[in-house]
Write a structure and sequence with these properties.
mainly beta; Jelly Rolls; 5 helices; about 30% strand; globular; binds 2-acetamido-2-deoxy-beta-D-glucopyranose; hydrolase activity, hydrolyzing O-glycosyl compounds; Beta-glucanase-like; Glycosyl_Hydrlase_16; ConA-like_dom_sf; signal
């Protein structure tokens, strides 16, 4: 499906391979409840193969098709002796009515008091105009109520990734009555339009599309520039996103996967120990994070065009679909590669 070309991949650390972490004195409020790693990564997910609810130009395939067509699978590296999981869009065929792609839904649900450690080696990028109209996402969605009443938490989401303009936008969608504080000193991004209302409404000019905090374009870790999405994210060898959802709010951090805080590396995460500021923190008394957000599934998908990426594609949605149908080679890098995903709940 793609060529492994990154020099940096030779350096891939064996971050999640050791299930028996070294003994440590770190205290953690969290207990590990799910581990999506080789060889069990895909066992924890089902493949969603219905129509894309966000009107993308994709055909989400079932488990067997994904395996047969190499849209899901493993990447083994001999040097570090690691096996990682990938999911991506097709990069070989012509698809007049929607490019084959993958959307995973976790079998488990996660509730408030949740911490997710998402170790990414590669994220989807496209070599065509406007990043080939890609719209990848890692997010949480509640199956317990009609959208948006059970809530949605978008951890990593970006459209049309090109080198010049790629950043992650973290977003909440809820029913009415969830308003977050606008306290930019507590995180690094900036609330879009200063909009604190996380509810979704498409009626009239008071409508909100959710509350969103895009990461700063110039993010840095320890003084070094660090990309939050797009081609530069892959060139730097990936990154580890961490999301926490408590009764007090929802935060998203991005760490250098080669230089993780020790407690995360040792699988005893304790956010109170981290000196790095989150990219986003949705908090404040204007929202009940235990009621606006019900138990959720983890979802990972690689969408193309559709109601966001299509609209902002150069030339618009029709041009996006046309390109996506006919240019398979522009999707050779349209895949997620995971070192692993570890899920924790507080007791
Ligand atoms: C590679 O890793 C696997 C699984 O962790 C282990 O069983 C195997 O012994 C390792 N091989 C080498 C050469 O270290």
């Amino acid at each position: 499906m793609f060529a492994i070309t990154y020099l940096v991949l030779a350096l891939v650390a064996l971050i999640f391979s050791s299930v028996t972490a070294a003994p440590t004195t770190h205290s953690t409020p969290y207990k590990q409840v799910a581990q999506y790693t080789h060889p069990n990564f895909f066992d924890g997910f089902t493949l969603y193969s219905d129509a894309d609810p966000t009107y993308g130009f994709v055909d989400y395939v079932d488990e067997q098709t994904a395996k047969d067509e190499h849209l899901t699978g493993w990447i083994y590296r001999e040097g570090p002796n690691t096996t990682t999981a990938f999911i991506g869009a097709d990069s070989t065929g012509i698809f007049p009515s929607g490019r084959n792609s993958v959307r995973l839904t976790s079998k488990k649900e996660f509730k408030v008091g949740m911490l997710a450690v998402i170790d990414l080696i590669h994220i989807p990028v496209g070599s065509g105009p406007g990043g080939s109209g890609l719209w990848p996402a890692i997010w949480f969605l509640s199956p317990e109520a009609t959208w948006p009443y059970g809530g949605e938490i978008d951890i990593l989401e970006y459209v049309n990734p090109t080198k010049e303009s790629s950043f992650n936008a973290m977003t909440l969608h809820t029913g009415p009555g969830c308003n977050v504080d606008n306290t930019p000193n507590k995180y690094l991004g900036e609330l879009t339009n200063g909009n604190t209302d996380c509810s979704y409404s498409d009626t009239g000019n008071t409508g909100s599309m959710g509350c969103s905090i895009p990461a700063p374009l110039k993010y840095s870790i320890n003084g070094h520039p660090f990309a939050t999405a797009g081609p530069d994210f892959n060139a730097q060898g990936g990154g580890t996103y961490v999301a926490e959802w408590t009764a007090e709010g929802i935060s998203v951090w991005l760490f250098d996967r080669y230089n993780l805080p020790h407690d995360i590396h040792d699988q005893r995460p304790n956010p109170k120990r981290w000196s790095q500021k989150p990219l986003a923190k949705f908090a404040g008394k204007g929202c009940d994070y235990t009621k606006s957000f019900l138990p959720m599934n983890l979802i990972v998908n690689v969408d193309v065009c559709g109601s966001w990426a299509g609209e902002v594609y150069p030339g618009g949605a029709e041009a996006c679909n046309e390109f996506a149908a006919n240019n398979p080679e522009a999707y050779r890098e349209a895949y997620f590669e995971f070192g692993g995903i570890l899920m924790y709940q507080s007791e």
